[in-house]
């Protein structure tokens, strides 16, 4: 009589054999397709496998083959890295369940995530002297980047030190982008907002997203690659008056200067009511002028094991908008249908935007 344990063991072995066979087929699929094509062409054209025809084919592919072999060695020796590395700075804020993501799904797509705790960043920043040449240089860069006349010197020093530590960490790991816990530990334990630093990174084509939104910064990076311009992360915030195709985009704010030419350093009034407005210096203010706009979102779906996305195009408008932070009014054709799609399919309230029309090569809703 066969014991249940032996039956389970045989089932496990069969399952593992099936998995190994499937993996072998997937890994060797290019070879199988090539063999299939050889058989197909041989049937359709009996002269296909003759020595003369094979010699002609070899001459045609020789140049491409030589180039491919050479580039293979470049990739293998690390000369070209086909993966994308993203840095998560701090833990996700408790209030933002919508910024959760599947690290495994991203890893399977060639996107790896490296982490650092905010305590490590704050500790390293505290070891940098105020008169360090790098601090002075960073403060000069901040002055040149945005109107910083309202920012206290101490806040600027904290921003500069934070930027130095994060830049060093990114360089040591070869990171392409970051998602940062921009509140509330930042204000409680460091006494500043780092929106300016994040804006400067995004402007330098090193996209940086708030609230540790890893999938959000992947969305920003996708738009950046498609347009070769900086991207930003926004909230689909609220409707604009009674126009069904217009809405307000907002963040408090860290948009790249590409979106807000009149950028200036201020505070975050909403956070300030809870954390003390003096601890929120570093948030940016500015209005995006009229122009082209592409939006989109990448999201990981754990239940189906898929990475989903939507992208589309619209326009920034010059409609009046009296508020704070980084902000814009946008017009998107059939906006309410888009919002219905976003909600029905469980996409997050964050979206990436880019000041261009570049959605053509990207997934549409």
Secondary-structure blueprint:
Elements: H1 4-27, H2 29-44, H3 51-76, E1 84-89, H4 103-108, E2 111-116, H5 118-126, H6 133-145, H7 153-173, E3 177-180, H8 185-189, H9 195-203, E4 208-210, H10 214-227, E5 231-240, E6 243-251, E7 264-266, H11 269-275, E8 283-287, E9 291-301, E10 306-317, E11 326-331, H12 335-344, E12 350-354
Parallel strand pairs: 1-2, 1-3, 3-4, 8-11
Antiparallel strand pairs: 5-6, 5-12, 6-11, 7-8, 9-10, 9-12, 10-11
Helix pairs in contact: 5-7, 6-7
Task: Explain how this protein is built.
- The protein is of the alpha/beta class and 365 residues long.
- It has a single domain (84-354), classed as 3-Layer(aba) Sandwich (L-fucose Isomerase, Chain A, domain 2), CATH 3.40.275.
- The chain is 44% helix and 22% strand.
- The protein is built from 12 helices and 12 strands.
- The chain has a 6-stranded antiparallel β-barrel with strand order 5-6-11-10-9-12. It has a 4-stranded parallel sheet with strand order 2-1-3-4, with helices on both faces.
- A hairpin with a 4-residue loop joins strand 9 (291-301) and strand 10 (306-317).
- Helix 6 packs across helix 7.
- Residues 1-5 have low confidence and may be disordered.
């Amino acid at each position: 009589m066969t014991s249940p344990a032996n039956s389970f063991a045989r089932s496990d072995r069969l399952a593992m054999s099936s998995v190994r066979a499937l993996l072998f087929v997937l890994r060797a699929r290019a070879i199988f397709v090539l063999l299939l094509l050889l058989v197909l062409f041989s049937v359709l054209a009996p002269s296909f496998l003759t020595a003369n025809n094979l010699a002609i084919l070899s001459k045609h592919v020789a140049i491409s083959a030589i180039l491919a072999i050479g580039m293979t060695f470049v990739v293998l020796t690390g000369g070209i890295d086909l993966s994308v590395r993203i840095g998560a700075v701090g833990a996700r804020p408790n209030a933002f369940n919508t910024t959760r993501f599947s690290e495994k799904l991203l890893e399977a797509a060639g996107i790896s995530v490296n982490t650092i705790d905010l305590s490590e960043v704050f500790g390293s920043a505290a070891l940098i002297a105020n008169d360090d040449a790098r601090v002075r240089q960073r403060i000069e860069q901040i002055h040149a980047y945005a109107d910083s006349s309202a920012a206290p010197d101490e806040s600027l020093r904290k921003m500069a030190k934070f930027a130095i530590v994060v830049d060093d960490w990114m360089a040591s790991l070869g990171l392409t982008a970051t998602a940062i816990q921009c509140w509330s530990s930042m204000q409680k334990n460091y006494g500043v907002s780092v929106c300016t630093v994040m804006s400067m990174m995004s402007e330098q084509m090193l996209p940086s997203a708030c609230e540790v939104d890893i999938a959000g910064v992947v969305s920003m990076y996708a738009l950046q690659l498609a347009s070769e311009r900086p991207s930003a992360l926004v909230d689909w915030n609220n409707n604009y008056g009674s126009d069904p195709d217009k809405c307000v985009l907002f963040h408090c704010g860290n948009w790249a200067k590409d979106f807000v030419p009149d950028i200036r350093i201020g505070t975050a009034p909403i956070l300030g009511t809870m954390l003390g407005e003096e601890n929120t210096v570093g948030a940016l203010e500015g209005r995006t002028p009229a122009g082209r706009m592409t939006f989109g979102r990448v999201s990981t779906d754990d239940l189906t094991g898929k990475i989903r996305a939507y992208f589309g195009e619209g326009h920034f408008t010059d409609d009046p908008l009296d508020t704070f932070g980084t902000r814009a009014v946008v017009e998107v054709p059939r906006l309410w249908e888009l919002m219905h799609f976003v909600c029905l399919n469980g996409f997050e309230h964050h979206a990436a935007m880019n000041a261009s029309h570049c959605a053509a090569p990207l997934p549409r809703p």
